[in-house]
Design goal:
Helix content: over 70%
Largest sheet: none
Distance between the termini: 26 Å
Order of helices and strands: HHHHHHHHHHHHHHHHHHH
Number of helices: 19
Structural class: mainly alpha
Strand content: under 5%
Shape: globular
């Protein structure tokens, strides 16, 4: 029957509709701590507006677009549909209506996205920019090498927004090289050496600048807000990060805390919202590992999914360097949600491209 909406499309639209309402109402129910970044983006009390840095560029973006003058529910009504439309253009998988673990993770992602873009948000800007990568990889007008180079170049260029994004291509190239070496436990060995690349970069930075990266960012920030009531999910290194070995332990601890937060889950069993995010993160990370393993077995067939996973894991490694707490880490992950969506349903999107050519 013509005009009938497919089940997968119906569920996609239902997720959009429900979470659009949530996004519009979020302003009235979220605690004040959710709006700390937003206040800076709107009011710019310290005159930070500029072209380099997440706050200067974020302030500039919301000033130029005039969005900062609108009520938050209207901002949500504009921002959330734009981001969901991008996901729609990437594609809707045919099994999106089925209750699988993978789909549930994405459904929750829709909800988290609704919360974090219900206000002026740097994650909105990150999402817009990072979503270019799936479209580059799905393009039929460029060679494979050109697509990979362009994707890495764009991520490096985004270092003007958050400087640590410039580290992602370096780690990604290293991970790609390491993943081609034969190891007994290739997945874990690849990630291990990927983290070591981040350690080497940080220690090199320490020799040049006098302070290691996590020492001068995460540890410094957490020291300042140690007794703050909003810092209950802080990521704290078990040893001081003032030495090369302390920094090494701190980076590995940061990566585990951000991506495999089992210990943090035990610490916050009485905080249901933190536990929920931790479960979501653990399931997400497990599925990414499974898909990474599959890609490595047939690198040519899953070439672009492999590179998307490598870029995403490189970002997760970088998060282990800089993220001060679980809440911030989760919010920042939403900016890279287009890559998760593309990875989860890669085989369907690539199949559609082949059928249309």
């Amino acid at each position: 029957m013509k005009g009938t909406i497919k089940k997968n499309t119906a569920v996609f639209l239902m997720m959009f509709g429900i979470n659009l309402i949530i996004s519009c109402l979020a302003y009235f129910v979220l605690p004040d701590k959710y709006f700390s970044d937003t206040k800076t983006l709107i009011f710019d009390k310290h005159h930070e507006i500029g072209f380099i840095g997440s706050y200067p560029l974020g302030i500039l973006f919301y000033k130029v677009t005039l969005l900062r003058h609108l009520p938050f529910p209207i901002i949500a009504l504009i921002q959330y549909p734009i981001l969901v439309y991008i996901l729609y253009k990437i594609g809707i998988p045919p099994n999106f209506h089925k209750l699988t673990v993978k789909n549930i993770i994405v459904y929750i992602g829709f909800f988290m996205l609704a919360i974090f873009v219900s206000m002026p948000s740097k994650e909105f800007i990150t999402f817009l920019y990072i979503s270019l990568i799936p479209f580059i990889f799905n393009s039929t007008k460029k060679s494979d090498k050109s697509k990979i180079f362009l994707a890495l170049f764009l991520v490096a260029l985004f270092g003007v927004f958050r400087s640590y994004y410039a580290l992602i291509p370096i780690i990604a190239v290293g991970i790609n090289f390491i993943s081609q070496i034969k190891f007994k436990r290739k997945i874990f060995s690849t990630l291990f050496f990927g983290i070591l690349i981040a350690v080497f970069i940080s220690i090199s930075h320490g020799f040049v600048k006098g302070k290691y990266m996590s020492e001068s960012t995460r540890e410094g920030l957490n020291t300042e807000r140690k007794n703050s009531k909003d810092a209950n999910s802080m990521i704290v290194s078990p040893v001081a990060t003032g030495s090369w070995y302390g920094e090494t332990i701190g980076i590995f601890n940061g990566f585990i805390a951000v991506n495999i937060p089992v210990v943090e889950g035990i610490k916050h069993l009485l905080s249901p919202q933190i536990v929920a995010f931790i479960v979501w993160q653990l399931l997400l990370f497990y599925i990414l590992l499974v898909r990474f393993s599959r890609c490595l077995k047939d690198r040519e067939k899953y070439k672009f999914e492999l590179w998307t996973i490598i870029i995403l894991f490189s970002y997760y490694i970088v998060q282990g360097l800089f993220e001060p707490d679980l809440g911030t880490a989760t919010r920042h992950k939403i900016g890279f949600f287009p890559l998760v969506y593309f990875i989860f349903y890669y085989e369907y999107f690539r199949k559609d491209i082949r059928q249309n050519n």
